[in-house]
Amino acid sequence: MEHELTWLRSHVIRCLEDAFSKPPELDGDGDPAFRQGTAAVFVTCHGAGFPAVRVWAVAVTGVRSSAKLLREINDVNARTQTAHVYYDNSLVYVEQALHAYGVDEETIGQAVVAVSAVANDIGSLTAMTFGGDTPYPADIEDVDAHDEAA
Questions:
Q1: Rounded distance, CA 117 to CA 119, Å?
Q2: What is the C-alpha radius of gyration for the chain, rounded to an integer number of angstroms?
Q3: Cys-Cys link to 24, which of 32, 45, 56, 138 (CB 3.0-4.6 A)?
Q4: pLDDT > 70: percent of the chain
């Protein structure tokens, strides 16, 4: 099992490098971890049950659960195509799981883009509406570029 996870992690890192034309940074566990806008994005390999790759992001930290927050998360889930959103222990997560044998440059790239897009779309507004913070602040340059495009 451990040998399979080692192979899978190596394969995922190579696919991410091919998808984004640069090697990903790795966290303390050796898993890819990076910033995408205001979101903290991670890619984790699992072998329990069946081998899978979990692409996930933290969209909001330090937020309190409420019926309104959970309704908002449910509404977001109803609109997303491949990623799903959930609340756990003061964090709002966005996630997409891939079967390990289906991971390639295209599928991992799509998962990272989908997860980070949803996390960025909901992060700042959710934090402002329900309290909490995004893992990373919005860049002033991103705000200026958005204002210029409008």
A1: 5
A2: 16
A3: 32
A4: 91
| Residues 52-56, mean pLDDT to the nearest whole number | 97
Torsion region of 116: left, alpha or beta (phi above 0 gives left; psi -120 to 50 gives alpha): alpha
pLDDT level of residue 53 (50, 70, 90 thresholds): very high
Helix (H, G, I), strand (E, B) or coil at 61: strand
Backbone angles phi and psi of 120, in degrees to 5: -70, -35
Q: Mean pLDDT over residues 9-26, rounded?
A: 95
Q: Residue 4: which residues within 8 A CB-CB, separation 6 or more?
A: 47, 51
Please answer whether residues 55 and 115 qualify as being in contact, where contact means their C-beta atoms are separated by less than 8 angstroms.
Answer: yes
CB 125 within 8 A of CB 37: no
